[in-house]
Amino acid sequence: MSRWFKHIAVLLTLTLALGACSRVGLAYRNLDVIIPWTLSDYLDMNGEQKGWFNERLKEHLSWHCTTQLPGYLDWLDRLQAMVETNQVTDDALQARTQEAKQAIAQTAREITPSAIELLQGLNDQQVAEMNDAFAKDQRKRQEEYLKPSLDQQIKERAERMNKRLNDWLGTLSATQQQRVMAWSNALGDQNKQWIANRVHWQTQFSAAVAQRRSPEFPQRIETLLVNRESLWTADYRQAYANTEAQARGLLVDLMAESTPAQRQRLLKKIEGVRKDFTDLKCLKAAQQG
């Protein structure tokens, strides 16, 4: 199952914001605000909670596999066609991005009731441990992404992106590497806005969980998980819009500069993800049914 979600995360990351998602494992860090079962990373559940959690997880995975994955296959087809016909344009990328956002929102809505139920059952010690885990998470990210000088942040961001692109496209040309560096420069101090917004979200989440017995709690959690963009800071909202635009520009330019061998590698990678999806037993069962 973890491989499956890794592929989903990578694909959504690739299209949603290749620029913003230029951090190792960010796919998972993005999804931790919409897939409640990753809350287990922050919670120390007791035996009863773990049993409930595992049963509910099976139900969500089954729903996701049978109702959502067929749409992902269609989405992959559209992505593949863009590469094959050399139509990796800004408009096409905006369309794929919007489709990916809708897919995320649909999953978030489906699993929010489980998140609410899990959180309502936490005791005070578990909530305190969750808050401590959030604080540790914040310190770690500030150390890794904000402590280096801005020049170093830009350099490291470009290096991470080069590594990711090498996996999908193969070795980049000098021109392509220069374009990646220009992209990283254009994002400037985006790390600062990203982490500040993350802290802002976690603070609101902790405040909501502190009032988990209140009648307003379900609605507050739904907002935090499903409509999280409505809670973004003004600075991050602006930074994210820039990040998306810069990511699309980067992809368009890289594909325009790509070699036939790079495009073939990309198509092969997409096909590999498609095969992993179609090989899932739950998807085969859904298609046969």
Compact description:
It is built from twelve helices and no strands. The protein is mostly helical and 289 residues long. The radius of gyration is 20 Å and the shape is globular.
Care to describe what's here?
This protein is mainly alpha-helical. The chain has one domain. Helices cover 79% and strands 0% of the residues. It is built from 12 helices and no strands. It has helices at residues 2-17, 26-31, 47-84, 90-120, 124-146, 150-169, 174-187, 190-210, 217-226, 234-256, 260-278, 281-288. The chain is globular and about 55 Å long. The two termini are 21 Å apart. The model is unreliable at 1-37 (pLDDT under 50).
Looking at how many chains there are and whether they match, the oligomeric state comes to single chain
Strand count:
0
* Shape descriptor: globular
Rg of Cα set: 20 Å
Number of domains: 1
Helix amount, in percent?
over 70%
Compute the separation of the termini in Å: 21 Å
Total helical segments: 12
Elements, N to C (H/E) = HHHHHHHHHHHH
Strand content: under 5%
Average pLDDT: 82
Q: Which sheet architecture does the biggest sheet show?
A: none
Unreliable spans are 1-37
Q: What class do helices, strands and sheet pairing give?
A: mainly alpha
